[in-house]
Amino acid sequence: MPAAANAQLSTDYARIEQAIRYLERNFQQQPTLPEIAGSVGLSEYHFQRLFTRWAGISPKRFLQFLTVEYAKQLLAESNSVLEVTYEAGLSSPGRLHDLFVTCEAVTPGQFKQNGQGVTIAYGFHPSPFGECLLAVTGRGICGLAFVADSRQQSLGELQQRWREATLVADPGQTQPLAEQIFDPASGQPALPVVLKGTNFQLKVWQALLNIPPGAAVSYQAVAAYIGQAGAARAVGQALARNPVGFLIPCHRVIRRVGLVGDYAWGSTRKQAILGWEAAHRQGEAAATRPGRPDRQTFPGAGSA
């Protein structure tokens, strides 16, 4: 996806996030499309266009992906998703992303004591979910974080994880990778990722790679998959320390009751990513069968 297109999606996301927050506060009042559009300072017409550009489907259909009922449906459908790995997801011919990730699992001690003597190139880039910080070493991607508060804070957190490394701003090096990561139509080679953590954290992060886009599993399911059924809380802690957001899809793990739960870069962004992936998965499915594109109107927000 060209940088200009990603920049537009990043700009759109600010409005999408604002709209989702409005719905979280007001869904019991069943707000109409004009009311939601007004909450983000847009006309009904422009808000409809915004959703179509960002999500690829109508606001009404997208917002259905934000409900607890839909989350529960995902959990029911995904009970065995970790067992079947990519069979129904990334390995299918019509896959949403070509994000096969090759992981090199290293411990802090193995990686020259937190990066001593290692140079990390980084850059800030637009994405469909707001600006992100992408960091790479000669061995692969070592950091991907969404900018939640400020660039300075995101960069400080990267430096904290790699205390002895030398950080060099080089957006020219990281931009091609950023475009590949967030392009649903990407057909580029596998992305190498460097994961530095405890043995337990590495097990959790590698398990997440078996969850295809548009699916979701519970913390308990991840714990059971790695052979530690009683460690759901520890799984949550490992997800919070995921150094490579989106590629290592901790956003696809939700609470067993259907609630989205916490996310290192905000629960609203987590909802947006899940909805965006669901929308693109639906688009792929529609492309394989006859029918007209989604053109639904928006009589009301429904539950969210």
List the helices and strands and how they pair.
Elements: H1 3-26, H2 33-39, H3 44-55, H4 59-64, H5 68-77, E1 101-106, H6 112-115, E2 119-125, E3 132-137, E4 140-146, H7 151-161, E5 166-169, H8 171-181, E6 191-196, H9 199-208, E7 217-218, H10 219-225, H11 232-240, E8 253-254, H12 267-287
Parallel strand pairs: 1-6, 2-5, 7-8
Antiparallel strand pairs: 2-3, 3-4
Keywords:
8 strands; 43% helix; two-stranded parallel ribbon; 13% strand; alpha/beta; 12 helices; single chain; four-stranded mixed beta sheet; 304 residues; disordered C terminus
Descriptive account of the structure:
The protein has helices at 3-26, 33-39, 44-55, 59-64, 68-77, 112-115, 151-161, 171-181, 199-208, 219-225, 232-240, 267-287; strands spanning 101-106, 119-125, 132-137, 140-146, 166-169, 191-196, 217-218, 253-254. By secondary structure, it is of the alpha/beta class. A four-stranded mixed β-sheet has the order 4-3-2-5, with helices on both faces. The protein has a two-stranded parallel sheet with strand order 1-6. Strands 7-8 form a two-stranded parallel sheet. A hairpin with a 2-residue loop joins strand 3 (132-137) and strand 4 (140-146). Helix 2 packs across helix 3. It starts with a helix and ends in a 17-residue tail after the last helix.
